[in-house]
Amino acid sequence: THVYTLAGDYTVTLTVTDSKGAKGTQNKSLTIAPIMITIPDLAGMSQADAENGITSATLAVGSITTVHNAGVPAGHVISQDPAAGTVIPEGTSVNLVVSLGPVMVTVPDVTAMNKTDAQGTIAAANLTVGTVTNTYHDTIAADRVISQAPAAGTIIAEGSHVDLVISLGPQPVTVPAVTGISQTQAEAAVTTGRLAVGTVTT
Q1: Which of 38, 31, 30 lies closest to 92, judged by CA?
Q2: 0.90 cut: is pTM over it?
Q3: Cα→Cα distances 43→40, 62, 66, 77, 81, Å
Q4: Could you report the average pLDDT of every consecutive run of 10 residues in the chain (202 residues)?
Q5: Which residues lie below 8 Å from residue 22, measured CB to CB, with a gap of 6+?
Q6: From start to end of 18-92, where are the E strands?
């Protein structure tokens, strides 16, 4: 008795003994059909789990291609070929495309730039402008970048947001009325109003 485990065409030689004890041989052709396997869904699995899934299904791991992908974590399967659900012969190779994660870029330094230049620099780095906050600043001119987040030099995923704080320039103040009061009171009112006492003429 012989068990054929591989698909293919075989020639089988049979020994036949008749009723008188005479022996003869006969050749017979035998075709063994392959065992068919349904490919499992491997998308989203880690590479190791996907390879285990392939071999557990009595299939073979084929080529492994790696590409950057922002939507699939590094080391996980983006796609497979043939597709999940395809019925193929046992032992057939299944190819995988595995993610390297997103492309990583360095955040540029845009502090002290005007708003337009800062936005252009961020876009040129394949990043996007996030939240823009405007605030008064005593020393940084209006329309200039006071600060950014993340900080310059940080390594982040391509397409991430960079938030900006933009100067409105010094905060306007109202000049206090100081006529009719003492010099000491007048100077106190001026400095309290975030102004500087200038020349005092007597």
Answers
A1: 38
A2: no
A3: 9, 15, 14, 5, 11
A4: 59 75 77 89 98 98 97 97 97 97 97 98 98 97 98 97 97 90 90 88 87
A5: none
A6: 23-32, 36-38, 60-67, 77-81, 87-89
